[in-house]
Amino acid sequence: MTMAPYDTIIVGAGVAGATAAYSLVQKGQKVLVLDKEGIASGGSGAAGAFVSPKIGKGSALQTLTNEAFSFAKDFYLSTSPNYFHQTGVIRIPKDVEDAKKFTVYETFNTNTCEKYNKEQLQALGIEVEFESFFFSEAGVCDAKELCVFLLQDIDVFMYDVEEIIYENSLWSVGAHKATNIVLATGHESNLADLKYMGIRGTWGTRGDFSSNLDLKVSMHQSMSIGANSNGIIKLGATHEKEIKEIIPCKKEQALSLREKASSLIDTSDLELKDVFCGMRAGSKDYFPLVGKVVDVDFMLENYPTITRGAKPELKHIDNLFILNGLGGRGFVFAPLMAEWLSQCIVNNKEVDKSVNPDRLFLKWCRKL
User: Fold this and answer.
1) Most CB atoms closer than 10 Å: which of 30, 44, 106, 277?
2) pTM higher than 0.85, yes or no?
3) Strand (E) positions, 29-71?
């Protein structure tokens, strides 16, 4: 039996899919979300879920990240304050050379920021010699709980999408139909020809530890350490780019994070309660992927000189969209990218060129 059509079907129920669904529903759309393993079952559920600014020398990526941070902070405070803990986040230099860079970075800290010296850090229970940045407006999300909350009034089905079909101006996914499809599938990108986007996975692990340590702030050095929330301190996530396939979570991975954290905080009473792991998806230039999908077959067949530098107008697949490539800052990027995508779908507004996947297509063609 064929179901009544939706306005949009979203494939993927991580933070990208959850925020996209929420934003589209706020604009009056009827939305269905499908995920083969359920809400926040992949990289989003394993994320440390920090919401904090990016430090650096004022690059375009830093500017975009910090715009997204400001939007995300306000979004979570207004929609889901119970799942966003504004603990503040301390960014700590990795070593002496990194500490020298922080002096340069200070000029480009456009978000509310203070410098904390050794004594101030020790008063917070952080054993480090370097001056560090404290972003008081930053914080940490309860990753899975937040995604579940955003999707609470939206149709969500556990379903393994193997094929999407477009006919008679509607997309079909199993028994369901919709005008639009959004691919928010993370590192698994086999439902359309997306090779030109260069989506790649990075494996992450998070360990949740019970503790009585009075740690009121979150911090990031070469790993993330969350503030103590209801007796739990979250440590993670590792970044392993050489892993290509999903592997079982292992407690040894989380315990190694506890060992690493011991150089920053007192870990003597941290007891491992749970381990989460998953693959995050990033793009080749580290900017998110938001917008329409190029019809690769049509372009290569009709414009063969595109591989030699020709720049014809791009043709896109009808009503097929993507929200992907959020990388390790998924909970920072997702709300703003979802807003931009929903404006594109509902109001036909052009997506910012910095995140529009079109930026990658011609470069990819020249390498064929």
Assistant:
1) 44
2) yes
3) 31-35, 50-51
